[in-house]
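Request: Not sure, any thoughts?
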Amino acid sequence: MTRKLFLATVLMLGITLVSCNTKPNDTSKSNDSTNTTVEQNNDSKSSSEAKDNKTNEDAKANKVKLSIYNIDENSLEPNESGTIELDAKLSIEDKLKALSKAVSEKKFDKLPIEIKSIDTVNGKKVATINLTDSSSSKWVPKFQGSTGGSVTSNTLIENFLQSNNKSKGEWIDGVKFLYNNQPIEYEHASDLSTVQYRN
């Protein structure tokens, strides 16, 4: 009887040991499947990131940068102070409108600058730009003084012609300015009274 009890106990211990040994193997199998899932997730993330990068590159390829220029008061030379990015598919007129808004906000205290027309003159595209003013005549002080008038003239001319910008895409060849729909006749802003062409 004691012998039977002893054999039964040994048998039970053997079964317990065998079942303990098989459980870790099952766990490693589930770990393998978890690792596979993680790897698949990482692969799909990499693929998704690559697609996002391609989309960003395509978006950049379809953009043009227009420069915003400051004019040095001593040399009267233009220096790029910023850029705006626009859809390359926009018409020249829409690009000019976006540029006029940026130049107005950043250089001329939000004074209105409107694009009147783009005409072909002697085979060249010339934009007519109107500097509008209410009865308060806020543009007038910007045309006065030898330095002030020159800085205003050069700021407007350089920003609209984009002469130093190589990445602007198709653009105008010349620009003509009006003040309240009339020719600009201020001594120190005389460059604004004639059509200015890109170099």
